[in-house]
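Hi R.,

Here's the chain you asked about this morning:
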Amino acid sequence: MAWFSSGSSNAALVKNLAGNGLITSERVKNAMLAVDRSHYAPTSPYQDSPQSIGFSATISAPHMHASAAESLLPYLHPAARILDIGSGSGYLTTVLANLVGPQGKVVGVDHIQGLVDLATKNISKSKEGREWLESGKVRFIKGDGRLGLDEGEGGWDAIHVGAAAREAHNALVGQLRAPGRLFIPVGEDMQYIWVIDKKEDGSVVREKSFGVRYVPLTDAPKE
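And here is the predicted structure, written out as tokens:
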């Protein structure tokens, strides 16, 4: 039903996603209503399809962002620490920030400095976004997302990966808190979303979900 979900405004897009069953949680619906996609997608922001954002990167279709947010939702408590790898435009990073409380932390990681700068510029288009950057609730940094981000603060409650990895990197699973969840597209020719949970006892459960098509999670271009 994704192809019927486009709208003429952000509110219409979110309404259609919910009406087509692609958003089922009121929390996710409200978070996506709070983030105007036109601040992040330079063309056709309310189409439910991927859009180019430059640097050979795309912003994923809104229904994929909704799916990721819905999947991670049980782990997005008020003080949650969230890692968004391949943060690109910064859109989903901002949606996730709307799903945690003032004590929560959301860090977007991208391997291209131009995208780090773009995401920072995009979130700064709203007053709330500027406040989150100033307070440190949201940060965008340059790094190799395949390695995750070890800040010595006990790991991450949820990790989202916005590009297709060749494998579910052990470094990411290792940085999950217990409990915690990793949402990651995996594969090259055939790609699937994998949802990987670390249980309270430290055991890991891996579930192959649905087929997708993402740009690959790769090395940064040589400068």
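One quick note: The longest strand covers residues 176-186.

Cheers,
M.
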